Amino acid sequence: MSFEQQEPVKRRSGAVRPVTIRATRVSDAEAIAAIANLPGFRAGTLRLPFQNIEETRQWLEKPSPNSTGIVAEVDGQVVGSAGLTRLSGRRIHIGQIGMGVHDDFTGSGIGSALLGALIDTADNWLAIKRLELTVYADNIPAIGLYEKFGFETEGRLRAFAFRNGEFVDALTMARLRF
Questions:
Q1: Which domains does the chain have, with CATH numbers?
Q2: Where is the N-acetyltransferase domain (predicted)?
């Protein structure tokens, strides 16, 4: 995404502040790695503890083909990141989504701003028919967010990942555009 988009966001304190959604930059590596190391953010992902800044920088320097990476900023601070990757071949009509929000900004509209920007890109720029994602079955706030944007649960992946000393399930969710 080559443009910046601003929307108001409500902080937990109740104060409304503008959020900027923009394309990721290599200079975001330190901020994204710091967010990925937060316990709440990490608990919702497949990431291991101690996210390496250099690995994050390399990922930003060489993005996957057909991918769109964005971040959310509040007052110049990166508070969330998300990505959309278009598949290829006979699955070219599908995009896969991954996202996360800084622990201190969950429930403040950052996830909605990020997901809305990715859906706009998928629908209006890439003609993607199907968006897919996986989410831990116990991540009720994220499931609610995805349902708000039209995602439906299609299945349960039992013992999907090992997290915090135990195996946890995940849901596979999709949004189809007709």
A1: 5-133 (3.40.630.30)
A2: 19-174
